[in-house]
Amino acid sequence: MRVTVRLFAAHREAAGTSTFEADLPAGATVSDAFASVCGSFPGIEKSTRVPAFALNQAHVQADAPLADGDEVAILPPVAGG
Amino acid sequence: MTGRFVLSGAPLDESAVLAAMTTDGAGAVVTFVGRVRSHSRGRDVTRLDYEAYPEMAEKIFAQIADEIRSRVEVIDVAIHHRTGSLGVGEVSVVVAVSAAHRSQAFDACRYAIDRLKQIAPIWKKEHSPDGAVWVDDRP
Question: Which of B33, B62, B41 is nearest to B133 (CA)?
Answer without folding.
Answer: B41
